[in-house]
């Protein structure tokens, strides 16, 4: 998984006044949990742009001015209810030999033939929770929908890997194509057309037979009268 470096400074004070002063200066107060003790630091709000405002998942390298470097992953974030500015971020420290739980985004690749025929694509799981060692975390799940016809689906079972554990039942549907009233299955339409033509020919043959059968008694009647 790709990592983003956040350069900051360790916070000397964690009180309300100090926190307010940081925010007024355009910085975001943060905490890293999971180590021997919480690590309080701050960084410029712009430093979190590629971490927060993206659908992709990333790990973080916290690089502090005093030389401390910590690998972490974002756990929680708070925004201002009016301005949407970042108020606070919680991180969790990563260890190479310790598994962690993380939500990984799902990306769809290709074009579904079922959708082209009028079906409706339902993206059921845009993120999947997994448990893995930091080095085994995938950037995203790449799901190919180029073979999905109307009525087909892709489940978690097809995404299983030995590198991580997906924390959802194997039968969980990730994406599916459902039918709509306007949906048309091209193969069925062709078959129905052929059957319809045969039905018309059979009806025509029946009508000709009935006409011929109707003419015979008339001729027989004339012969009898003669």
Description:
The structure is a single chain. The chain is α+β, with helices and mostly antiparallel strands. It folds into two domains: 91 residues, Beta Barrel (Ribosomal Protein L25, Chain P), CATH 2.40.240; 79 residues, RNA Polymerase Alpha Subunit, Chain A, domain 2 (Beta Complex). 25% of the residues lie in helices and 36% in strands. A hairpin with a 5-residue loop joins strand 2 and strand 3. It is elongated and about 60 Å long.
Quick tags:
2 domains; disordered C terminus; Ribosomal Protein L25, Chain P; four-stranded mixed β-sheet; elongated; 36% strand; 226 residues; six-stranded mixed β-barrel; RNA Polymerase Alpha Subunit, Chain A, domain 2; alpha+beta
């Amino acid at each position: 998984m790709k990592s983003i470096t956040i350069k900051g400074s360790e916070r000397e004070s964690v009180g309300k006044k100090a926190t307010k002063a940081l925010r007024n200066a355009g910085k975001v107060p943060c905490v890293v949990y999971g180590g021997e003790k919480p690590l309080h630091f701050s960084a410029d709000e712009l430093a979190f742009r590629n971490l927060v405002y993206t659908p992709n998942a990333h790990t973080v390298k916290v690089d502090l001015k005093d030389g401390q470097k910590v690998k972490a992953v974002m756990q929680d974030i708070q925004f201002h209810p009016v301005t949407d500015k970042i108020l606070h971020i919680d991180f969790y420290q990563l260890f190479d030999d310790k598994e962690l739980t993380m939500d990984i985004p799902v990306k769809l690749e290709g074009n579904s033939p079922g959708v082209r025929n009028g079906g409706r694509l339902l993206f059921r799981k845009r993120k999947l929770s997994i448990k893995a060692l930091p080095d085994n975390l995938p950037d995203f799940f790449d799901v190919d929908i180029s073979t999905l016809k109307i009525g087909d689906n892709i489940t978690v079972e097809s995404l299983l890997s030995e590198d991580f554990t997906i924390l959802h039942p194997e039968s969980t549907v990730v994406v599916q194509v459902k039918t709509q009233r306007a949906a048309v299955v091209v193969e069925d339409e062709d078959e129905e057309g052929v059957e319809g033509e045969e039905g018309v020919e059979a009806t025509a043959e029946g009508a000709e037979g009935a006409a011929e059968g109707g003419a015979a008694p008339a001729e027989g009647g004339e012969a009898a009268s003669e």
